[in-house]
Amino acid sequence: MRYGVVVCPKCRNPKVVLLSFKTSKCARCNKILDIEKLKIIYKTDSESEVRNVIGLINADNDGNYDDFKKMMSEQKF
Q1: What residues have CB less than 8 Å from 11, skipping those under 6 apart?
Q2: What one-character DSSP code corresponds to residue 77?
Q3: What domain range is 31 assigned to?
Q4: How many Cα atoms are found within 13 Å in the side-chain-facing hemisphere of 16?
Q5: What is the C-alpha to C-alpha distance for residues 69 and 30, in angstroms, rounded to an integer?
């Protein structure tokens, strides 16, 4: 499967989408997202990698980017 990271244009919430689908629904504001019209921030085949990217985006938005990077480097996956 091919995963992508997009940002909802209405509420600015980052979201993981399956790139094989045409639409997805934002969990925060319920807006139907047309995947083909959105900028894909990141693409990967790895589910864990795409979750890490979402974590980095959320941590950066909250001002905790450096703490999140440190925590992720200490994890043993």
Answers
A1: 26, 28, 29, 31
A2: -
A3: 3-74
A4: 17
A5: 30
- Count structural domains, the chain: 1
- For 29, the 3-state DSSP assignment is coil
Rounded to two decimals, the pTM is 0.80
Closest CA to 44 of 36, 30, 54: 54
Dihedral of CA atoms 46, 14, 62, 57 in degrees, nearest 10, equals 40
Query: Are 44 and 50 in contact, with CB atoms under 8 Å apart?
Result: yes
Helix residue spans in the chain (DSSP H): 47-61, 65-74
Residue 65 near residue 56 (C-beta atoms within 8 A): yes
User: Tell me: the pLDDT tens digits for 32-61?
Assistant: 999 999 999 999 999 999 999 998 888 888
Mean pLDDT of all residues in 12-32: 96
Counted residue by residue, the chain has a size of 77
